[in-house]
Design goal:
Distance between the termini: 55 Å
Largest sheet: 6 strands, parallel
Shape: elongated
Strand order of the largest sheet: 3-2-1-4-5-6
CATH topology of the largest domain: Rossmann fold
Helix content: 40-55%
Strand content: 5-15%
Number of domains: 3
CATH class of the largest domain: Alpha Beta
CATH superfamily of the largest domain: NAD(P)-binding Rossmann-like Domain
CATH architecture of the largest domain: 3-Layer(aba) Sandwich
Radius of gyration: 24 Å
Amino acid sequence: MNIAIVGTGYVGLVSGSCFAEVGIDVTCIDIDIEKIERLKAGIIPIYEPGLDDLVSRNVKAGRLHFTSDLASCIDDVDVVFSAVGTPPDEDGSADLKYVLEVARTFGRHINHYAILVTKSTVPVGTSAKIKSEIQQELKKRGIDVPFDVASNPEFLKEGAAIKDFMSPDRVVIGIESERARKVMERLYRPFLLNNFRVIFMDIASAEMTKYAANSMLATRISFMNDIANLCELVGADVNMVRKGIGADVRIGNKFLYAGCGYGGSCFPKDIKALIHTGKEHGYRMRIIEAVEEVNELQKSVVFKKLGQALGELRGKKIAIWGLAFKPETDDMREAPSLVVIDKLLKASAEVSVYDPAAMQEAKWRIGDTIRYADNMYDAVLDADALVLLTEWKQFRLPSWQVIKKAMKGNIIIDGRNIYDPAELSENGFVYHCIGK
């Protein structure tokens, strides 16, 4: 079976490589010619554990190809996936210009039955717009070629994307014809053979499922951060509260960790888009609005704790461990670190940072206004305070004796609640965390 995937970003490249791994012939397409040439040379544009080897192996096997021209391969494929970006507009709505351009290109060049499957996260109703664009292009050509549209939202976690794709907890597919269902069943047969759940539904429900899933996860995070802030005021420990409520099987223990807020390419964007979709239909998403508000406020909690611990921040040296919005990625989109660093610089503090993967991304986003350390211990040299923002594994069991000798001060701000307060106290540090 032959497929094409338009867009070689996070979703497109991971999806294409994984489909190739199960024996499907995949052509990945991107209008960025330089990016395509780098991919052909084995240079991967994103950081994702295991992706380099996966791409290399399938290119060598002849199952994974790269091109900048969809028209050059469309006659040979059964399915075209659209995995292009849907960045938020100023009003929070998803910008669909790239998605609709893929639809127009599809309509200009198909000559046999094929399915255009949207993998990008798009608002409910987008597939109808995609279908209309394709029909208009076919009308311009004066031909009638059968086609289908479908929705197949991704649920990949950055840092564990390959595992998520190869061993999914569910595959959601929105279709509107039996013919499309049969093609998609064939495509996902390797996963069906392993008894993974492939859930077919109508297209609108598939589009909504993606937003609802991310919004629920974001809601749990903001809920726990709200509880954590109240815990501090009343003298409770949010870690104990988390264990207590997580033991209820109706609640469970996933996504109940308090911290300094969520970031990334999905949650913030999808929350904004869902709020906007509600407004478009005359409905206010009150809970989701609160989720977003709590999260934006939470990103400033670490900065406030620094001010409380150190007083005047002007001239103070602050070390930061972790820049990416989560471990095992270099993605800094909407990361709490950006908010914390911005506030520290405005307060005239000196900032030294280290992240195992996101240093180049930080240099691109922040520039030379901060110091980029060579390693985690170099970052804390002469620091008045150390702030943890991303819970990378290598930060979990540091040598506190080395850190104590390197630092000028003794303040530790744990934005992810990963350290033992007693251990920090024994080593002479003043420890601050979230929700205790």
